[in-house]
């Protein structure tokens, strides 16, 4: 139902997943199980979302074999540093009720803390110990990536960053391609900022798909992994139906013109919260 992308460590990740930010902890297990039963195979969580218990419970409730579900979590900013990160990862695994995650990410670089290199070294250790099968980062810009790669020789498998038609991050994506890093798009719907845009509407009319599906398909066709969130069954189903149609080159070019370089979220250069 979903395509797979190759990671630079020889493993694979489903191109489409679902995100758990702002999914209430009380309903996370139910939402996770419903999404997995529907066909999703990638669950994007984070310690700071406060719902890792539900994430783990939902995976178990789905009845799927563990190796059929790709589980991501992230180390929060307050836990950066070598020893703290090792402890934070253990705490995440305990909350998830799992022996390992498929992907562990550094949530934000937090340049003012200047701890992301030590944090990256901890992720390398956690991978060696089998607690994270793959390791990557989130919200890293080119200088942050260059530094951790240069200092450790280990390239993250993936960088999860804000991308939507109004913030296309072309230079960063080119850097990722050059280094074999998968781009993963967060807030892929961009808070609805391009639902009404003419190129999106035109592609929706031609394909008979919704503007949301056109935008998610655009992410797929730029080669990104994409992790939309919906707490509604219909929303989850709609966001999963991306692999039975495609956008033409002309439609992709028209959507490319929507880029304004404007973020919905914070600029990682100045975000050091936590
Ligand atoms: N690494 C990071 O720093 C970072 C930051 C932000 C997000 N993320 C990850 O990225 C995931 C996705 O980002 P996001 O949750 O911010 O935003 P999103 O997936 O772009 O959008 C979610 C919003 O769109 C609505 N929606 C979803 N599908 C829809 C559909 N088919 N039709 C109409 N509305 C729809 C949802 O409402 P309903 O629930 O009502 O459908 C919700 O309000 C997060 O859950 C998280 O896992 C990571």
Summarize the structure.
This protein is 41% helix and 15% strand. With 274 residues, the chain is an alpha/beta fold.
Rg from C-alpha positions? 18 Å
- Main beta-sheet strand count, sense and barrel state: 8 strands, parallel
CATH fold description of the domain at 12-192 and 224-232: TIM Barrel
CATH architecture of the domain at 12-192 and 224-232: Alpha-Beta Barrel
User: Which descriptor suits the 3D outline?
Assistant: globular
End-to-end C-alpha gap: 38 Å
In round numbers, the mean pLDDT is: 98
Q: In DSSP terms, counting alpha (H) and pi (I) runs of 4 or more, how many helices?
A: 10
Q: What topology, given as strand order, has the largest sheet?
A: 3-4-5-6-7-8-9-10
Description:
- With 274 residues, the protein is an alpha/beta fold.
- It has a domain at 12-192 and 224-232: TIM Barrel (Alpha-Beta Barrel), CATH 3.20.20.100.
- The protein has helices at 25-38, 52-62, 82-96, 116-128, 142-152, 170-179, 198-207, 211-221, 233-240, 249-256, and strands spanning 4-6, 12-14, 18-19, 42-44, 70-75, 101-106, 132-138, 158-162, 182-186, 225-226.
- The strands form two sheets. It has an eight-stranded parallel β-sheet with strand order 3-4-5-6-7-8-9-10. It has a two-stranded antiparallel sheet with strand order 1-2.
- Strand 7 (132-138), helix 5 and strand 8 (158-162) form a beta-alpha-beta unit.
- The protein is globular.
- The N and C termini lie far apart (38 Å).
- The relative contact order is 0.15.
- The mean pLDDT is 98.
- The structure holds NADP nicotinamide-adenine-dinucleotide phosphate (NAP).
- The site of NADP nicotinamide-adenine-dinucleotide phosphate has 23 residues, from helix 9.
């Amino acid at each position: 139902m979903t395509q797979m992308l190759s990671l630079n460590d020889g493993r694979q990740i489903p191109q489409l997943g679902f995100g758990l930010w702002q999914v209430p902890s009380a309903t996370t297990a139910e939402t996770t199980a419903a999404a997995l039963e529907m066909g999703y195979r990638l669950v994007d969580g984070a310690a700071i979302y406060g719902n890792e218990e539900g994430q783990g419970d939902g995976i178990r409730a789905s009845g799927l074999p563990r190796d059929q579900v790709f589980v991501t979590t992230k180390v929060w900013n307050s836990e950066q540093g070598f020893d703290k990160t090792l402890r934070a990862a253990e705490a995440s695994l305990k909350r998830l009720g799992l022996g390992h995650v498929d992907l562990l990410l550094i949530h934000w670089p937090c340049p003012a803390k200047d701890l992301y290199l030590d944090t990256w070294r901890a992720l390398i250790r956690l991978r060696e110990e089998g607690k994270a099968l793959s390791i990557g980062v989130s919200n890293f810009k080119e200088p942050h990536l260059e530094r951790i790669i240069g200092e450790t020789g280990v390239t993250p498998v993936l960088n999860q960053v804000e991308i939507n038609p109004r913030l296309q991050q072309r230079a960063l994506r080119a850097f990722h391609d050059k280094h074999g890093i998968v781009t993963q798009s967060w807030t892929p719907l961009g808070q609805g900022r391009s639902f009404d845009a003419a190129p999106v509407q035109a592609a929706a009319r031609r394909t008979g798909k919704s503007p949301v599906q056109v935008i998610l398909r655009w992410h797929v066709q730029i080669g990104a992994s994409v992790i939309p969130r919906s707490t509604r069954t219909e929303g989850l189903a709609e966001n999963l139906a991306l692999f039975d149609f495609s956008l033409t080159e002309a439609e992709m070019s028209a959507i490319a013109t929507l880029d304004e370089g404007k973020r919905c979220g914070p600029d990682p250069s100045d975000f050091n919260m936590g």
